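Example S7 (structure tokens).
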């Protein structure tokens, strides 16, 4: 009799233990995904994600899907074409989480967790340019084209002392390469993946070696979430780094992820 009852008691104890542990996770999932599914806002830049056969693929959707899996909720990938639209998506309740660069206007609209990705930044210069290294750029008379409202633009404002900065729309590299081709600008600053794209529009151009700034890409979520959400984001990001998940997600993107690294 004792032998037949003991396994049953153990099974009951295990079920109760599992239920007690699962309840906080369920509460946390509701905080992350109040609609019942985790809506992941995916920035549609080639070094974040691309659409293939009707599906979004890249390190950004991979991280969002993994977060939903761990929270045990379904997910929805919400494509965002313009970085400026990310503010509306999270502040107006149309998305629950994203991965994007930290800027002043975004930080005022939604909260950030830890940095998970770094985007290496440099300069593109025309073939005949005398500029050879990153420090060479900050000279009087040098005109730098910079994407408006970008993280690297904010950083350049802090470190550039002599050169002049010209703002262009962030959506495409063409305005920047046009200015350089017309002799109205001397260098184009952007993340390395975009500079690789821009080279096609400026034959013979060179990307300066190195990186003057690794743009920090962090997990973002709407303001007003609890301390438990903040803590879970810290643990999630730490595990995505230590487990190698983030590195593998970047590697799967191939050349699209040139200049994309796991943040230290």
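Recovered sequence:
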């Amino acid at each position: 009799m004792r032998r037949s009852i003991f396994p049953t008691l153990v099974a009951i104890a295990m079920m109760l233990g599992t239920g007690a542990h699962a309840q906080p996770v369920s509460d946390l999932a509701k905080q992350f995904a109040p609609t019942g599914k985790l809506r992941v806002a995916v920035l549609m830049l080639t070094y974040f994600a691309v659409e293939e056969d009707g599906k979004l693929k890249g390190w950004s959707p991979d991280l969002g899907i993994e977060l939903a899996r761990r929270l045990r909720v379904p997910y929805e990938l919400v494509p965002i074409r313009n970085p400026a639209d990310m503010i509306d998506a999270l502040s107006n309740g149309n998305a629950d989480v994203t991965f994007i660069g930290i800027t002043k206007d975004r930080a005022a609209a939604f909260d950030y967790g830890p940095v998970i990705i770094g985007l290496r930044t440099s300069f593109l210069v025309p073939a005949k340019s005398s500029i050879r290294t990153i420090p060479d750029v900050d000279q009087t008379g040098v005109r730098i084209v910079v994407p408006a409202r970008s993280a690297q633009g904010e950083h350049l404002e802090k470190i550039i002392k002599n050169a002049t900065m010209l703002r262009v729309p962030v959506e495409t590299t063409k305005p920047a390469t046009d200015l350089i081709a017309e002799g109205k600008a001397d260098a184009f600053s952007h993340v390395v993946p975009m500079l690789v794209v821009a080279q096609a529009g400026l034959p013979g151009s060179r990307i300066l070696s190195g990186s003057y700034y690794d743009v920090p890409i962090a997990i973002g979520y709407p303001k007003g979430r609890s301390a438990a959400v903040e803590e879970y984001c810290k643990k999630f990001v730490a595990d995505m780094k230590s487990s190698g998940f983030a590195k593998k997600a970047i590697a799967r993107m191939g050349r699209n992820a040139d200049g994309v690294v796991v943040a230290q």
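Notes on this example. The longest helix spans residues 2-32.
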